[in-house]
Design goal:
The relative contact order is 0.14. The longest helix is centred in the N-terminal third of the chain and has 17 residues. Helix 4 runs antiparallel to helix 5. The protein has five helices and six strands; from the N terminus they run αβααβββααββ. The model has no long low-confidence stretch (mean pLDDT 90). With 188 residues, it is of the alpha/beta class. The strands form two sheets. A three-stranded mixed beta sheet has the order 1-3-2, with helices on one face. Strands 4-6-5 form a three-stranded mixed beta sheet, with no helix packed on it.
């Protein structure tokens, strides 16, 4: 009798690991500023994919990261519910509170000479008073480095020294502090 019970548990364990649960559907609620397809792209999960142990953490981290990239630093994942449909499929329901976006209040450079400011300030001016967007900031930095390379500073670098988010302001704002290191001029 004991042998039968052990065999039953071993077979059940083998079948459970062989036929793990898969995602039947994913729903997003609470989103206002981003579409459901944005969220589905961010979490990178689709129906038919297997459910894994840390799937809730993965979903929360991916959504929070992407919302932060678009200036939503004060978002909240209110709930991630995984509901069994049957023994092999689940529905995932994600409830999000996006919060309010953070606007760029100022962009300040250290190590910036008067001649450098002519090249650099205009590249960053369009970002101020707009919602923080990581891609826009990276593009401004990249364009500035390209311009510096074109005038003889191929090893210039811009360091983001800090991004100070001020959550107590209305609207929420951030100050971005950058540092320019041009290096030596390589040609005229």
């Amino acid at each position: 009798m004991t042998l039968r019970i052990i065999k039953y548990f071993l077979i059940t364990a083998a079948l459970t690991s062989t036929f793990s649960q898969t995602i039947n559907s994913i729903s997003i609620s609470g989103n206002r500023n981003f579409s459901v397809s944005d969220y589905l792209d961010w979490i990178n999960l689709n129906p038919g994919m297997p459910v894994y142990e840390s799937i809730e953490d993965s979903i929360a981290n991916r959504i929070t990261l992407n919302l932060s990239n678009f200036g939503y630093f004060h978002s909240e994942i209110q709930n991630i519910a995984i509901k069994n449909i049957d023994t092999s499929t689940v529905n995932i329901n994600v409830s999000v509170k996006e919060g309010e976006p953070t606007y760029i209040d100022s962009i300040k450079f250290s190590n910036l000479s008067a001649s450098d400011s002519i090249i650099i300030i205009d590249e960053f001016a369009f970002l101020e008073s707009n919602i923080f967007n990581k891609s826009d900031l990276e593009l401004a930095i990249s364009n500035t480095l390209d311009n510096l390379e074109n005038i003889g500073y191929p090893f210039a670098k811009i360091i983001i020294t800090s991004i100070l988010v001020k959550p107590d302001t209305t609207p929420k704002t951030a100050d971005i502090n950058l540092e320019l290191h041009k290096g030596e001029k390589k040609f005229n």
